[in-house]
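Deliverable D2.4 — example input (structure tokens):
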């Protein structure tokens, strides 16, 4: 197919995808994907941390890529049961769910970890199923 012919074909990936097919697909076999060719940094969801190792189809569950979900709770279980809002990046990052800045978070909440509280076992106070309430 020539470029003029391919531009007349309606994309199965939705109207928002404007890339040439050959950017992601091998031309000899259109079903084979060149995963290393697509630059996700140019999207509204650059792949960072552990998202780099997730298979494309885990997020892109259908061929219309504009419908891929981008909020954490849409893919990950909210163990806090919506008690702390939807801004997961306030405490977590894409490298790990472990909270690296717990002292800063406690200061912001009005209960700084000072004295014995700094060495206390978190789960002695946070006894709920979500470990946060």
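Example output (designed residues):
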């Amino acid at each position: 197919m020539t470029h003029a012919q391919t531009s007349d074909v309606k994309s199965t990936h939705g109207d928002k995808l404007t890339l040439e097919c050959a950017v992601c697909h091998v031309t000899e076999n259109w079903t084979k994907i060149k995963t290393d060719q697509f630059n996700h940094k140019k999207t509204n969801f650059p792949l960072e941390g552990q998202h780099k190792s997730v298979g494309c189809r885990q997020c892109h569950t259908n061929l219309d890529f504009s419908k891929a979900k981008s909020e954490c709770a849409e893919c990950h279980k909210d163990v806090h049961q919506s008690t702390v809002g939807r801004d997961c990046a306030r405490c977590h990052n894409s490298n790990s769910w472990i909270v690296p800045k717990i002292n800063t978070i406690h200061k912001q909440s009005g209960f700084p970890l000072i004295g014995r509280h700094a060495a206390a076992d978190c789960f002695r106070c946070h006894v709920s199923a979500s470990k946060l309430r």
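Strands lie at 25-26, 29-33.
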